[in-house]
Amino acid sequence: MGLTLWPRTRAGGKAENRRDHRHFCDFKLSLLDGSRRSVPRPAFLTDMSRSGLGLRTDLPFSVGDKLGVQLALAGGRRIDASCTVRWTRSEGFLNSYGLEFEGLARRDRAGIASLLEPAPEVDRVGLFLQAGASIVLVLVFADLMAGSDAVRSSVVGALPYVLIFGGCLAGLWASFRS
Q1: Dihedral of alpha carbons 38, 39, 40, 43, sign
Q2: What 8-state DSSP symbol labels residue 147?
Q3: What is the b/e burial string over 101-131, where b = at least 16 CB atoms within 10 angstroms of the residue's CB?
Q4: pLDDT of res. 63
């Protein structure tokens, strides 16, 4: 993920509490000035959420300052967002800032959400094994039902117990997976 910041305007403002869960991270950032030229100053992304991000740098910002943020998404897509400094805290040589995104389009919000919560991967091996076991079970059941009347009546009589036992096993399996 690439991230660049550049100052927009300075304004007075009031601190605001966090609304979304923060995902903690530690990325070095590229800072840009108002002309979008590189500023050789240390800057770090400390956390990020759907509504904003945490920044640590030695540059002086005040509550209410407006900053531009550029996020690089997968596929080469970039988001240029405006942020407002909502809180500041001095931490030795560096200062920490809480920035809130402003005026993001729905597509940009979805892009930020995809950065924070990537789509879950499909367990292809597990899915293949489950499908194979289901097919074997259907074939065994069909073979038993094609047998003699005595075997068929035994299978039909045992079916409710097999289903209850299978349901219990499936419930245990699901509880251990989560």
Answers
A1: negative
A2: S
A3: beebeeebeebbeebeeeeeeeeeeeeeeee
A4: 92
Residues with Cβ within 8 Å of 95's Cβ and at least 6 positions away in sequence, in order, are: 56, 57, 58, 59, 60, 61, 88, 89
> Which amino acid, 105?
A
User: Strand runs (DSSP E) across 17-111, as ranges?
Assistant: 23-28, 30-32, 38-39, 43-48, 52-57, 66-72, 78-91, 94-102
* 18 or 86, higher pLDDT: 86
Residue 18, both tokens: 């966090």
Instruction: Specify whether the CB–CB gap between 54 and 97 falls below 8 A.
Output: yes
Cα–Cα distance for residue pair 80/76, rounded to 1 Å: 13
Q: For 129-174, how does the pLDDT look when each residue is reduced to its tens digit (9 = 90+)? A: 788 788 887 778 777 777 778 877 887 788 788 888 888 888 887 7
CA distance 6 to 79: 13
Distances 71 to 109, 144, 152 between C-alpha atoms, Å: 11, 61, 64
Residue pair 105/84 in contact (Cβ under 8 Å)? The answer is no
pLDDT tens digits, one per residue of 64-122:
988 877 777 777 778 888 888 999 998 888 899 988 888 888 888 888 887 777 666 66
Contact between 110 and 87 under an 8 Å Cβ cutoff? The reply is no
